[in-house]
């Protein structure tokens, strides 16, 4: 399915097993003038987000999201380990220690559901490699709010279960390799 590129104000990216490699490949391809904020949920177990494990594109700040922090352009925010990351209607973050979802905290589903309610049709959701089904319901929720949904091509993913489950439930608008996503994201800049 191909659709026009809407006015995107935020991008959600979720990954699990194989996610560090996939995210770095995506980040390395972002153009220097990329301004759209990214909200990332990565299953890392009990480990904290390690900024130097990720490539920071020129002019973009990578950081863990903080409680009540406003979502700003030119930032890539990571959900802190062992917290659910929620997006509020005023486009700030809140953190929760509620029970795990799909055996995970942070949960892709929770972040995507709250981001979809806040951003509605101006949210782009991406589900990358992973070995579980977290993210399937969240991507479906983004579609319900008329947002845009992308899944990594399972043949391109180190672990195909998660993007396949998300595609099956949400009927994603696009199925792409990381390389194809990079080109697509670069093209979104003109919509700001």
Describe the fold and architecture.
By secondary structure, this protein is of the alpha/beta class. It has helices at 19-28, 108-119, 136-144, 161-170, 178-188, and strands spanning 10-15, 38-42, 61-64, 75-78, 84-87, 93-96, 123-127, 148-152, 174-176. A 7-stranded parallel sheet has the order 3-4-2-1-7-8-9, with helices on both faces. The longest helix is centred in the middle third of the chain and has 12 residues, at 108-119. The chain is globular, with a radius of gyration of 15 Å. The relative contact order is 0.21. The mean pLDDT is 91. This is protein-glutamate methylesterase. One of its GO terms (biological process) is chemotaxis. One of its GO terms (cellular component) is cytoplasm. GO terms for molecular function: phosphorelay response regulator activity; protein-glutamate methylesterase activity.
Number of helices: 5
Note the gap between the termini. 23 Å
CATH topology call: Rossmann fold
Structural class: alpha/beta
The CATH homologous superfamily is termed: Methylesterase CheB, C-terminal domain
Catalytic activity: [protein]-L-glutamate 5-O-methyl ester + H2O = L-glutamyl-[protein] + methanol + H(+)
Keywords: Hydrolase
GO molecular function: phosphorelay response regulator activity; protein-glutamate methylesterase activity
Pfam family, one: CheB_methylest
């Amino acid at each position: 399915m191909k659709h026009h590129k809407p006015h995107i104000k935020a991008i959600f990216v979720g990954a699990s097993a194989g996610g560090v490699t996939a995210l770095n490949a995506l980040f390395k391809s972002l153009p220097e003038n990329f301004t759209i904020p990214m909200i990332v949920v990565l299953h890392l177990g009990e480990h904290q987000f390690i900024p130097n494990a990720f490539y920071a594109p020129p002019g973009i700040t990578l950081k863990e999201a903080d409680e009540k922090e406003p979502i700003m352009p030119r930032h890539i925010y990571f959900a802190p380990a062992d917290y659910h990351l929620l997006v509020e209607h005023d486009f700030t973050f809140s953190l929760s220690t509620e029970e795990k979802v799909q055996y995970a905290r942070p949960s892709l589903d929770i972040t995507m559901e709250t981001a979809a309610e806040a951003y509605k049709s101006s949210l782009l959701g991406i589900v990358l490699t992973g070995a579980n089904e977290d993210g399937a319901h969240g991507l479906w929720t983004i579609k319900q709010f008329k947002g845009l949904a992308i899944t990594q091509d399972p043949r391109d993913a180190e672990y195909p279960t998660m993007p396949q489950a998300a595609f099956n439930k949400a009927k994603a608008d696009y199925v792409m390799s990381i390389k194809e996503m990079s080109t697509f994201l670069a093209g979104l800049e003109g919509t700001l």
